[in-house]
Amino acid sequence: MLVSLEEFQKRDSGWALSRILNLTVNVNRYNPLHAGCHVKVPQEIMLKRAVINVLSTNNACFAWSVVAALHPAESHTERCSSYPHYTTILNVQGIEFPITLNNIAKFERLNVDISINVYAIQERKKEEEGLTVVPIRLTSEKRDKQVNLLYIQNPQDDNAGHFAWIKNLSRLVSNQLSKKMHKYICDR
């Protein structure tokens, strides 16, 4: 602030700062959303059969959800044992779990053929019933392997949640659009 003032005075403005009457500084703690614990998918979402919720106990639900998208299981889709281990499929070097939304860009840089979109559940207004699925992170570059994930907020902890693979985005958001047929969703 003082440097800017000096530069302003050097430009022959004729103005001078004699005193500062009031200065307010706000310091806020930033807790980015992170996901890792297992959270149950809401019943309304589960009934659509559009989301695969892999049960993981090591805070790596993001990685397991990506592997589920890349290597879909035919049965027992909720079990980690139905998929190859994420460390054999994905490059997660230097990524800490539970992952934050900000670290997904780092994951995309490490895995150049994979792009990730993240959606979240939002409650509708009082006059409307049900849940709405909204994007909270859209990839900047669509790649060969596009993965859509659902971020599910932990009801006991506002700063923690869980990732699940969106197997069919059209089915998941169909009641938000219309009651007819399959819809193609453009994620741009």
Keywords:
188 residues, alpha/beta, 7-stranded mixed β-sheet, 6 helices, 7 strands, 23% helix
Description:
- There is one protein chain.
- By secondary structure, the protein is α/β, with parallel strands linked by helices.
- The protein has one domain (43-175).
- The protein is 23% helix and 23% strand.
- The chain contains six helices and seven strands.
- Strands 1, 2, 3, 4, 5, 6 and 7 form a seven-stranded mixed β-sheet that branches.
- Strand 6 (145-154) and strand 7 (157-166) form a beta hairpin.
- It is elongated.
Task: Detail the topology: elements first, then pairings.
Blueprint: H1 2-10, E1 34-35, H2 43-46, E2 51-52, H3 61-70, H4 86-89, E3 99-100, H5 103-110, E4 114-123, E5 131-137, E6 145-154, E7 157-166, H6 169-177
Parallel strand pairs: 1-7, 4-6
Antiparallel strand pairs: 1-3, 2-7, 4-5, 6-7
Percentage of residues in helical conformation: 10-25%
**Quick one: how many beta strands?**
7
How is the main sheet built? 7 strands, mixed
Sketch the topology as an H/E string, one letter per element. Answer: HEHEHHEHEEEEH
Any idea what the shape is?
A: elongated
Helix count, DSSP H or I runs of 4 or more residues: 6
How much of the sequence is in beta strands?
Answer: 15-25%
For the record, give the distance between the C-alpha atoms at the N and C termini, rounded to a whole number.
39 Å
| Total discrete domains | 1
**Average pLDDT:** 81
Radius of gyration: 22 Å
Instruction: Enumerate the spans where pLDDT stays under 50 for 5 or more consecutive residues.
Output: none
Briefly note the structural class of the backbone: alpha/beta
